[in-house]
Amino acid sequence: MSGASERFGGSFTQQEPIPEEAIEAAIAVMRSGRLHRYNTDDGEVAALEREFAAYTGAKYALAVASGGYAMGAALRAVGVKPGDKVLTNAFTLAPVPGAIAGVGAVPIFVGVTEGLTIDLDDLEAKAGEARVLLLSHMRGHLADMDRLMQICDAADLAIIEDCAHTMGAAWRGRMSGRDGLVGCYSVQTYKHMNAGEGGLLVTDDDDVAARAILLSGSYMLYARHGTVPPEAAFERAKFVTPNVSGRMDNLRAAILRPQLRRLESQCEAWNARYRTVEEGLQNTPGLTVINRPVGETYVGSSIQFLLLDWPGAKVGEVLTRCAARGVQLKWFGGAEPEGFTSRYDSWHYAPSERMPASDRVLRGTIDMRLPLTFSLDDCALIARIIRAEVGAVWQSMDS
């Protein structure tokens, strides 16, 4: 049982320090003065690209300025033009539809299930409306990628995967980002590697890789990349592909390379924290824990649960009560966007039809970060607080 006097005193935005090895590598880059990736023949960015390609099993990797830039470059590289329709998740964050709008295309939203994955029945129904799916593995939840690939293959849909929350995750042993034509990743502070800002994309396609490299601002220095497509691919692309500069620099790459080497152990540490909170929330009256599919290897850097069919005022009461005890929860059902949290009807540049089943899920979706600065005891305490406050509000509704 949780006592009402228990309070959590940690910070939900405090990340771990950058590893000493990464700090030393960054200092070495700063002392050299060679921060720009093309100021060296084979610098930190090129090395990161080789190492990330090897980690994911991809033929090519490209390091860029942000995860959002990676998605925009991927859309351009697969041939999305202004006015084209692109399918994407209704449950995602603003950079995903923003990347679509940024190339002048039109998002077509696909619904969300109670498992917080893309609704594959809705995807199948809408598959003929576009030729590209920008698939967001939102908050680290992987759909049944076997069925998704069957749907997309049957409809000749190219897939770009937004893996901002699934670096290190897998479906039936296949790394997230490797089912689609392109996988896009973020290394912003709240993601699984921390460069402050930055992104990576991977692909096995020679022409997509060459166009993405040129788009990123390689000029004619593309041979200096860590993973380089054949010259013929650049010959086909170099005079018709715009320079939309979004390069990563050697400083950020130096910070990231040591983090990549320890990513697997970091993922295990997140999952230990996730399981502790998940166990503490099981069988809480009124609260639905998200069931993770058997085929999914997830990375629990955040956790979500549902307060399905609760009145909005009562959800707000839960958030207020938890905040008073030091636990910061985010809600996707609020009337207005708040912080990083928004939903498909918030993006007025992308008109959409109502999706009642998805709206019901979003109205009940609660989200919480799990920084690695939290101990397992912290996570158990957080779960006790949430359980107690949800229970108290649920009991008030039931009385």
Are there runs of 5+ residues with pLDDT below 50, and where? none
* Span of the ends, CA to CA: 21 Å
Spell the H/E element sequence.
HHEHEHEHEHEEEEEHHHHEEEHEHEH
CATH superfamily of the largest domain: Type I PLP-dependent aspartate aminotransferase-like (Major domain)
Rg for CA atoms: 22 Å
For the record, the CATH class of the largest domain is Alpha Beta
CATH topology of the largest domain: Aspartate Aminotransferase, domain 2
Overall geometric form? globular
Sheet with the most strands, sense and barrel status: 7 strands, mixed
Strand line-up in the sheet with most strands: 1-9-8-5-4-2-3
User: What share of the residues does DSSP label as strand, in percent?
Assistant: 5-15%
Number of helices in the DSSP assignment: 13
Secondary-structure class? alpha/beta
On the 0 to 100 scale, the average pLDDT is: 96
Domain count: 2
Produce the secondary structure layout.
Layout: H1 20-32, H2 44-56, E1 60-64, H3 67-77, E2 85-89, H4 95-102, E3 106-110, H5 120-126, E4 132-136, H6 145-155, E5 158-162, E6 170-171, E7 174-175, E8 182-186, E9 199-203, H7 206-215, H8 231-237, H9 250-261, H10 263-281, E10 288-289, E11 296-297, E12 302-306, H11 312-324, E13 330-331, H12 356-363, E14 365-369, H13 376-398
Parallel strand pairs: 2-3, 2-4, 4-5, 5-8
Antiparallel strand pairs: 1-9, 6-7, 6-11, 8-9, 10-12, 12-14, 13-14
Description of the structure:
This protein is an alpha/beta fold. It has two domains: 20-261, Aspartate Aminotransferase, domain 2 (3-Layer(aba) Sandwich); 263-398, Aspartate Aminotransferase, domain 1 (Alpha-Beta Complex). Helices cover 39% and strands 14% of the residues. The chain has a seven-stranded mixed beta sheet. A four-stranded antiparallel beta sheet has the order 10-12-14-13. The protein has a three-stranded antiparallel beta sheet with strand order 7-6-11, with no helix packed on it. Helix 6 (145-155) links the parallel strand 4 and strand 5 (158-162). Helix 2 (44-56) packs parallel to helix 9. The chain is globular and about 70 Å long.
